[in-house]
Amino acid sequence: MTTRRSAPVYLNLFRIQFPVGALTSIGHRISGVLLFLAFPWLIYLFDLSLRDAAGFRHAGMLLQSGALRLASVPVAWSLFHHLFSGIRFLLIDIEAGVELRQARASAWLVNAAGMLATLLYVACIR
Amino acid sequence: MSNPVDGLRTWLLQRVSAVYLAVYLVCIPVVFWLRPVADYTAWRERFADPVMAIASAGFILAVLVHGWVGLRNVILDYVHPIGLRLLILVLVAFLLIGCGFWGMRVLILASGMA
Q1: Closest by Cβ to B43, choosing from A32, A49, A90
Q2: Could you give the ipTM of this predicted complex?
Q3: Domain of A63?
Q4: Of A22, A34, A40, B18, which is the most exposed, with the fewest CB atoms less than 10 Å away?
Q5: Per-residue confidence in pLDDT tens, chain A, 126 aa
């Protein structure tokens, strides 16, 4: 009953070729998991901010604290990268930019845009 | 009767929720840029607005669907021991559903319906 695939096992990290599209893809997964982990904290802040005027101020103070500003940087990158690469995957789903050269170019664009948007975010909150 | 979290339906759910999330995430900054919120009263009134409340409830629902399918795919790919895999899937489901109810409660309280 068990059918084993005979895919080559090739786990030497120095010999694995990582094309740019693979970085976009693994980044999409990592950012997705980070967003999932951030979700309860965001709901908490949302709850606090809508509770009453004191809660609103408290949430504002928390958001301005050093710890939360630092923690928000990977969350911001996750949001930007996940959104940009997600739009790219949706376009590829509808057969836009499937051709290898275009797909490579859009992967570069998406990776760079995620980083750039994060840098802009850091510049805004520092 | 096919498994509701398998195959084409899952693929489609992931894409439909993705489009909703993307549209919401692009619209929200524009809304707050056009009509800034200065204090608690304005913030609360913004989420008491039915359009905003319903759009945000839809956002939370889309996060649950999208998060579940995405996390499930990642867990099935990387966690192979069946017991551990089941444990993590259950934890993820509880966390998503718990946060979903929590978020909906916040929206309902803010809307003044309760």
Answers
A1: A49
A2: 0.91
A3: 20-125
A4: A22
A5: 556 666 666 666 666 677 889 999 999 999 999 999 999 999 999 999 999 999 999 999 999 999 999 999 999 999 999 999 999 999 998 888 788 888 999 999 999 999 999 999 999 998
- Which CATH number fits the domain B7-111, given the four candidates 3.50.50.60, 3.30.310.50, 3.40.640.10, 1.20.1300.10? 1.20.1300.10
Domain segments of chain B: what residues? 7-111
CATH of the domain at A67: 1.20.1300.10
Which chain A residues touch B if contact means CB-CB below 8 Å? 29, 32-33, 35-36, 39-40, 43, 46-47, 49-50, 52-53, 56-57, 79, 83, 86-87, 90, 93
Residue A72 lies in a domain: yes
A47, A52, A87: residue with CB nearest B102: A47
Please give the residue of chain A at the shortest CA–CA distance from B102. Answer: A43
DSSP for B66-112? HHHHHHHHHHHHH--SHHHHHHHHHHHHHHHHHHHHHHHHHHHHHHT
Q: Does A53 contact B40 at a Cβ distance shorter than 8 Å? A: yes
